[in-house]
Write a structure and sequence with these properties.
Elements lengths: L12 H10 L27 H23 L23 H4 L2
Length: 101
């Protein structure tokens, strides 16, 4: 988009703020805003193997803090992810509208 090869792009609010800081002379315009995604949204295709889905769900449930540490280590870009893991509850009803997509 900065180089002129794209007219629009979807991004999170945090990435928009990062882009505005990185390119202060480039005007960014928000043309639409979607609903906030729940912090714990993990999605899989209905065609995905159920055993694999359960294995991934168990990894996040049992080792979420270790995974978070790996995501946060050595970068400032992912610090906003810190807030997701304490609230992670697989099957939480707040995610129903995401599941309906």
């Amino acid at each position: 988009m900065i180089n002129g090869d794209l007219d629009a792009v979807g991004m999170s609010f945090d990435h928009l703020n990062s882009a505005r800081k990185a390119f202060p002379n480039v005007p960014f315009l928000v043309v639409a805003r979607g609903r906030d995604l729940p912090d714990d949204a993990l999605m899989a295709s209905p065609l995905a193997d159920q055993a694999t889905i359960e294995k991934i769900r168990k990894a996040f449930t049992d080792h979420g803090q270790d995974l978070l540490g790996s995501v946060l280590d050595g970068t400032d870009d992912n610090q906003n992810t810190r807030r997701a893991f304490p609230q992670f509850h697989p099957g939480q009803r707040l995610s129903d509208y995401v599941r309906a997509m």
